[in-house]
Design a protein that fits this description.
single chain; three-stranded mixed sheet; alpha/beta; 12 strands; seven-stranded mixed sheet; about 25% strand
């Protein structure tokens, strides 16, 4: 399937999810994530603030924000900036996503782990994003562990990767924990 076909397929499948199914899937996926060595050993973690059609990160961030240092991205032109998470310092930003406010930006190289949203992943760590390339540009200089989280149906057999696409190191869905072997 081409990337646009994958985007259409996943979008249609997401519309069939009930709120209960969304909540259950997020609890399962983030429950698996918090048991990984990557999460346990990381202190500085870049998360994403979920859109309504993504696995919700909100309960997970609230649960761990007193014990981990979370950061969120903020759109700045065609790039993403990284700022510390502070629930009282969020404002609606680009694409109707709550983003951190202020000027306290942090370098991507300071992150130990990055939890990355995507439309789909495959078992080789390739991902299909929303098509704007924000995460590919952000992740090119990162050495942090990159964790992809998704619903089971977002896991594809194979995704055609382009040279600029940045792969994840791990994919976690409700029923899968896939560690990607480096080529």
């Amino acid at each position: 399937m081409k990337k646009d076909d994958i985007r259409r397929h996943v979008k249609a499948r997401k519309t069939l999810l009930s709120e209960e199914e969304k909540l259950s899937a997020a609890e399962r996926v983030f429950g698996l994530l918090e048991k990984t060595a990557d999460f346990i050993l990381s202190d500085r973690i870049l998360m994403y603030h979920s859109l309504p059609d993504e696995l919700s990160t909100r309960a997970f961030i609230r649960k761990w924000s007193g014990r981990k240092h979370f950061y969120l991205p903020r759109v700045n032109g065609v790039n993403l900036e990284i700022l510390p998470y502070d629930e009282s310092q969020l404002a609606l930003g680009s694409f109707h996503i709550e983003e951190p406010t202020g000027n306290d930006t942090t370098a991507i190289t300071d992150m130990e782990m990055i939890v990355i949203p995507a439309v789909a992943y495959d078992r080789a760590g390739n991902r299909v994003g929303r098509g704007k390339g924000y995460y590919d540009r952000l992740l090119t200089d990162s050495r942090a562990r990159k964790i992809g989280v998704a619903y089971d149906f977002q896991l594809m057999d194979e995704i055609d990767a382009e040279p600029h696409d940045v792969r994840v190191d791990v994919v976690i869905t409700e029923n899968h924990h896939i560690i990607i072997r480096k080529r």
